[in-house]
Amino acid sequence: MNAVAIIAGKEVRDGLRNRWVIAMTLLMAALALTQTLIGSAPTGTVGVSARSATIVSLSSLTIFLVPLIALLISHDAIAGELERGTMPLLLSYPVSRSAVVAGKFVGATMILSIATVVGYGAGGVALALGTGAAEPSAWAAFGAMMGTSIVLVMVFIALGYAASACVRDPRTAGGIAIGLWLLFALIYDMALLGLLVADQGRLVTVGLLNVLLLANPTDVYRLLNFTGFSDVSQFAGMACLAQQVRFGAPVLAAVLGAWVVIPLTASILLFKRREL
Q1: Over the stretch 174-203, which tens digit does the pLDDT of each residue have?
Q2: What's the structural domain count of the chain?
Q3: CA dist., res. 83 & res. 168, Å (int)
Q4: Which residues constitute the domain of residue 124?
Q5: pTM of the model as a whole
């Protein structure tokens, strides 16, 4: 545990000195503020709260932006250090390979969690200043969105580590990372929509659709945030889907957690089997 903490601390210090991390934090804050300021524009005509509009806007932004950032930061964590020759030096100390992966994972998660909290927190402050006092349930939905965004960060960091552990060339790992982002953020849902349109309800039942949605972590994230609160689901256009989803918030949260554990475990096992 001490080795994990030391490695995690080094990752955080390196990350805080990284200009890309600072630029990413500023970008997330700027986009969150923009989405917050323009997100309440339709509330006067459709009768929804500014908070609901902001949650939908930021959640939609998260699905595309956060996985890409997490994969770009994590894809060379192992392959890159092997290419630079720093990994054999690190393993020459009394530290296990699982501790190396765990420490890097904790450090990267802390860095991106800080960026997420600062970035989306800026949007929350702007929302509070613009709308005044709100009910506790209003901020519960916003807090749930931030919490699940951090878990989504962890999912794609773990996927990036799995990609980095299975290849030697960091450029190949980068290609795999971009492929994973395209698959989960764009291609999967487009293919699922095409399947539903072509099937016309003949083979794809409601139960099978629920299982297919769980096979994509961004869909699980979307279901948690868009169907967990009634006014948010209505504004997001998912009120009908919310009635079809047979899994409650605890099950969806557990599935999202499994999307962290499984690829992270796979990355540790792959790294243990690699020859330096």
Answers
A1: 999 999 999 999 999 899 889 888 887 778
A2: 1
A3: 7
A4: 2-181+259-273
A5: 0.87
